[in-house]
Amino acid sequence: MKPEDAYDIIVVGAGPAGSTAAMYAAEKDLSVLLIEKKKDIGVPLQCGGFLPHYPILQELVPNAELPVTLEEIPSSCIHATASYQRFIAPNGISKGFDVDADAIDRRRFDKHLAKEAGKAGAHILVGTNVTEVDGTKLFMDGAFGEFEVQGKVIIGADGPNSIVAKANNMLRDDDPMGTGIAFEYELSGVDVDKDAVEMYFGKDYVPGGYAWIISQGDDTANIGVGIREALFEQHLCARDYLERFMYKHPIASEKLNGASITSVIAGLVPVGGAPKVTANHNTLLAGDAAGHIIATNGGGISTAMVGGKLAGETAAEFLAGKCQLQDYENRWRQQMGLEIKTAVYVRKLMDKLMLSDRLMSTAIKMITPEQMKAIQCGQLPEPVRKTLLKLNVGLS
User: Fold this and answer.
1) Ramachandran region of residue 256, left (φ > 0), alpha (ψ -120 to 50) or beta?
2) How many CA within 13 A on the CB side of residue 336?
3) DSSP character for 152?
4) Cα–Cα distance measured from residue 86 to residue 89, given in angstroms and rounded to the nearest whole number
5) Is 337 helix (H, G, I), strand (E, B) or coil?
6) Closest CA to 24 of 245, 229, 286
7) DSSP letters for 3-27
8) Can you tell me the distance from the alpha carbon of 111 to that of 235, in angstroms, rounded to the nearest whole number?
9) Fewest CB atoms within 10 Å of the CB: 106, 110, 229, 353?
10) Strands 94-104 vs 49-52: parallel, antiparallel or unpaired
11) Cα angle at 181 between 393 and 348, to 5 degrees?
12) Hey, how many other C-beta atoms are within 10 angstroms of the C-beta on 143?
């Protein structure tokens, strides 16, 4: 089915940011087209899902107005619920804190959000690639042939390598340390802590990054590594590091012994912060395209959805003559810009430490569980800042 020739708002990308933007815009009785290059929304999966409960999300971005779709996640979209987050230092010592969070089935969750956009009145077009952006005119091809569509406002929610961002010169800084790779396996036949999310550090397994084990209930789990290509050893790739962690890590390998790999997941994670500009007179960016991610944990579902909500609302208000489209820039930065910026600063402080097993183990020993939780939320208590700066001086 081909779309109409013109829409008020065209959203590119049906991930959490794009579907949320389309839903909020369509609720204002505007014509909205939501375009997704995947033939089946959420498949193939490019990133796993770890989503704190609503009250924790409010702590994460206290100034943000969270989308209604974050208040109650359908049980069908939840693999398992965790109550604890554990950090395992390179020397094997662990420390953690209480947390209420869900391991999300991203395939079902992304599809759920797209359906909510459809219920609100958005037209959804899957299996369609945007090949060119010319102002507010998009050229596309895919499952329904080649065609072009005209919009009044374009919302680019099409990921770290956004074609919409490139066409509007809204690019993030070209920093090799600003883009991470998340490479994951879904496993069956494992015996892991079902109540805890575990994060592992160690330069031999994840130089400058971390690995994780997240139970998905029963005998299944998601394991992965978050790492920057600039730190790879020669001739190694992200898969090599994940397999080294899975089969050779002294603690993890025992838990994962005999596991079967049922799915491979890979995606880019923009941990370098937002581009300088995310809005102009006819285009907005949201989600990964806008760097809406907490760099200290790689989590971006909730922040992407906040950005999507604001993009959809601002586009609708702009078309109603109530604001300028560029107001979006201030709106999202006021609601979560500080947390995103602080998280990037903390990530940079941690980068060097994570290349030294001795100093990383020392950092985990010195930082309290409450301070760890703050770091995960993109916050930087003064005692932690002093500790990290002191340890970084030791690397000079």
Assistant:
1) alpha
2) 34
3) E
4) 10
5) helix
6) 286
7) --SEEEEEEE--SHHHHHHHHHHHT
8) 37
9) 229
10) antiparallel
11) 20
12) 12
Counted residue by residue, the chain has a size of 396
Instruction: Considering only CA atoms, give the Rg of the chain.
Output: 21
Structure tokens that stand for 170 in this block: 């809204």
Supply the DSSP string of 86-137, one letter for each residue: EEE-TTS-EEEEEEEEEEE-HHHHHHHHHHHHHHHT-EEE-SEEEEEEETTE
Q: For the residues of 12-76, what is the DSSP string, one character each?
A: E--SHHHHHHHHHHHTTT--EEEE-SSSBTTBS--S-EEEE-HHHHHHHSTT----GGGTS--GG
What are the DSSP calls for 208-246, one per residue?
A: TSEEEEEE-STTEEEEEEEE-GGGPPTT--HHHHHHHHH
Per-residue pLDDT for the chain (396 aa), expressed as one digit of tens each? 678 789 999 999 999 999 999 999 999 999 999 999 999 998 766 676 889 899 988 888 899 999 999 998 999 999 999 999 999 999 999 999 998 999 999 999 999 999 999 999 999 999 999 999 999 999 999 999 999 999 999 999 999 999 999 999 998 887 878 899 999 999 999 999 999 999 999 999 999 999 999 999 999 999 999 999 999 988 999 999 999 999 999 999 999 999 999 999 999 999 999 999 999 999 999 999 999 998 887 778 999 999 999 999 999 999 999 999 999 999 999 999 999 998 898 888 888 888 899 999 998 998 888 888 887 777 778 888 888 888 876 554
Q: 159: alpha, beta or left, given left = phi > 0 and alpha = psi -120 to 50?
A: left
The residue type of 9 is: I
- Token pair 């395992």 is found at 88
C-alpha distances in Å from residue 250, one per residue of 89, 91, 214: 12, 10, 18
